[in-house]
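Worked example 3. Consider a protein that binds uridine-5'-diphosphate.
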Amino acid sequence: MIFKPLRFVLISTPIGSVGSGKGGGVELTLVSIVKGLLEMGHKVVLVAPEGSYLPSDCKSAEIIRIDGIDQSSWQHQQIDSPITIPADGVLPKLLEIALNVGKDSDAILNLSYDWLPLWITPHVEAKLFHLISMGCVSRVMADAVKNLSKSHHSRIAFHTFSQASDYELTRDPIVLGNGFDLKNYFFQSCTHGPLGWAGRVAKEKGLEDAAKVASLLGDELNVWGVIEDETYASKIESSVPRGTIKWRGFLETNEFQKQLGCCRAFINTPKWNEAYGNVVVEAMACGVPVVSYKLGGPSELINSGVTGWLVPPNDIEKLKNAVLKIDEIDRQKCRDWAEEKASYKYFSSRIFSWIVEGIG
Ligand code: UDP
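Given these inputs, the predicted complex is written out as structure tokens:
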């Protein structure tokens, strides 16, 4: 099918600038969408917090950078927490600019996981679409998604079925997966490397369980990612023998994948309904098998016994035993899965079809 070029406005996360790592997996998701849409010949305007940048192969996208205070993330609030927007908050500004620019555009795609953009959707002329990036951890957000599903179901999409199952929807969810530029991830065949873990160091990610497994095996655990909670990080560090955790910091994708690809196994220990689990796919793209709890997105990404092992949530003994049989996994199959299911081209074409259908 041939389409005329469209103009899309993308709203970034209101938590940190693109490239900072504070926004978590959404940052990479956003880059994949921008890249894919540009390659299809469309125009992209990104509205994002000050300091945001895109990789050089996305330079034909226009970026409008907005100053303002970050939203606090929903995952660190209580189930009944109210909506809060700080004075000089960046979220309303992102939305205001996007709606303005959106007047001359075909659609606005919102990647900020927050109440305001969802609530405003039925009240504006602009065609506002939402890629929901989290499972549900708050009543306010549950209601916002539920109400939008009643009035504009086609405007919301999810990464995985597990994630979508957190929400009350009027129809079957639109599930689009996620995508990566796989030429940025090199396959590595080594099977004797260290253990790895990556993600925001925050309670919902369960690093303590991976650290425990490494300590039981008398092994080291390489950890990559932004430390969101210093107290939590030091508590984990002091709960295992000194030197068990090797903090590697938050690295740019190229360096991250180089180090990640050396691992013999990647351990993923979500304590929440992970929406997708970018790091799981990034590990597989490098040929690293993943051992994970069977919870949320990773349970749909890992083919247990083929690309890694899925074990019951919070079962440290099973997690450890799964690491011990990691050599039964063929690393090439991990890479093959990523190529087949998680390329940015495939993902962005699904995003495009969803939006085109939605705007008629
Ligand atoms: N990441 C990175 N460098 C690092 C560690 C992690 O760029 O050193 C990125 C990784 O590429 C992934 C994101 O951090 O896109 C974490 O996303 P994920 O979906 O795993 O979890 P989230 O933070 O969204 O809950």
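Take a moment to read the result before moving on. The chain has two domains: 7-180+343-359, 182-341. The mean pLDDT is 97.
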